[in-house]
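Hi! If you just cloned this repository, the fastest way to understand the data is to look at a raw example. We've pasted two of them here, unedited. The first protein comes first, obviously.
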Amino acid sequence: MSSLSVDHLIGIKHLQRSDIELIYKTAENFKDVINRPIKKVPSLRDITIANLFFENSTRTKLSFELAEKRLSADVINFSSGSSSVKKGETLIDTVNNILAMKVDMVVMRHPNPGAPYFLSQHVDAKIVNAGDGTHEHPTQALLDTFSIREKLGDLEGKKVVIVGDILHSRVALSNIYCLQKMGAEVMVCGPATLIPKYINELGVKVSHNLREALNWCDVANMLRIQLERQDMAYFPSLREYSMMFGLTKEILDSLDKEIIVMHPGPINRGVEITSDVADSGQSIILEQVENGVAVRMAVLYLLAGKIERES
């Protein structure tokens, strides 16, 4: 298979295993490109991509922008904080105005779950979901699983624990879907108040004991506490959370095996993970950042291949 089965990247849920494998393979090629002295390729020349971020983002936005520029695309950046959205313009108005500028692809982050899907039904451009509310963040899951695969050779049968604020995390949901499609076993770990009620329906294991979870896994993906999405207190204090679920070097060294440590960023150092763990040899956090650009290049390139150009 040399093209994706989908026209948009709305969520991992809609992808087939063959789609994910194609994205990995393409990302490997682009990783070679971005490690060359000349890092640009003309693959998306004459393609215009609009980055629509209705929610604050630094790392994801920069990663997409770099991926687009490495592919020689024309890039329009749009941030709702300084736009007509504050004056009451609707999502569809904003997008129609941008599409009137003849945009081919839209990379979108939005606080409302389902916004990228809504967009894909109403506009004639390829849509990439860069995070919609607490729903999905597909490119993060693709770069996370790509990074594990790079380190361990394969995802089949590997045990991955996702630790932290599962309830408010779009990263967790996308990772669960992606890991399971690639044959990995998944466990979630965190306070009972931060584990969603529906989680058992997804076929994952659940633990409320960090040490137990770490003894089980090959890989620990430590999530950030999403304080900005929490409308009430889900645990007594950050200090208590850190004591119960924070990963320290002492805990890491006490395990009878070496595990891989990941974090989607930004890191709350000293809360979910200490600095000496984040900077340790078992951490692949910086590899995740590098792989993020290659994976996003792959997604944009493959979706652009489905754009019908007028002759």
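Ok, and the second one:
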Amino acid sequence: MAKFENDLVKGSVAKQLILFSLPILFSNLIQTLYSVADMIIVGQFCGAASMSGVNIGSQITFVITNMVFGLSVGVTVLIGQYLGSNNRKAIKETIGTLFSSLTILAVILTALMLILQTPLLKLIQTPKESFSEAKIYFFITTLGNFFIFGYNALSAVMRGMGDSKNPLIFVLIACVTNIILDLILVAIFKMGAAGAAIATVVSQGLSMVLCIFYLMRNNFIFDFSRESLKINKKRLSMILKIGVPSSVQNVATGASFLFLTTLVNTIGYEASAAVGAVGKLNGFAILPAVAMSSAISAMVAQNLGAGREDRAKKTTAVGIGISISISVVIFAFVSFFPEWCMRAFTSEAPVINCGVEYIKAFKYDYLIVPLYSALTDCL
């Protein structure tokens, strides 16, 4: 067994969930800091128009990222089940199929997005003040699709094998790189949304490369050879069967926010910037629920693979309880300090005022997400 594999069918359920979910939480927290750092630094040094551009450009790529993450959930579940039943051959075939199919999908989507970038930005009513900034941010981050796909695939595989710690290390290094590049390109060289996009793509690429090197040096079950990258129709069918529903759900969520962005864009770039800032805040607020959901998925998969249905049910119940408890605290915080939350992104009064009103209405979502995320991932 490689040192990053972890048996999740033994020991205290609550302890296993917490220990396994914490690295996922911190990893997701750091990944969220990518776009939040972009938004804060651009907002503080380049103003609301650039801030709006980053928000609009990132909303479109967010839909693509959500789709990949949804498909990756299927892989985490499958690998967890195969690991629980000690089916090493199926694990190798699933990993090879995932890497090859996502590479093909990344190439296709990148080409389509580059061709359709201007029509898409016009379709969502991008304000003229921020159109050029949104376009350059969208263009550069689209070129980095391969890194987004690659890192999400590798993380899904490692979570399925019981490892949630090492992805945290890689993404931490990448986040520090992103913030440093943001400060250099945006704060010093005043490159606006373009600088933020370059910083994001470079840091995402770094996290993927570090992950691959680590796996190759530490007895990883998959050897990354050309022969191993064949697409197995049976494994692909299983990945799609489990991953597509989650992917569609995630895409629908991302599309709903994109629709909201379209409506707000008709009001003006200041409102667009405010909604973008609250969106980044929301990214932080739901992280505990998302992390616990990922932990529940991995643990339930391994326990079902090992024939421990009773433990799988207990894992779901305990995980939901922990997740709801944390979300209630977050709900209380944003309820009492909405203005403070907005001031972290900008000092412009119109943006702050719009953001505070949005937070007051949106905060109730934090009470629903824990239950919804955990149950949909388990189903």
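That's it. A detail worth noticing about the second one: DSSP finds 14 helices and no strands in the chain.
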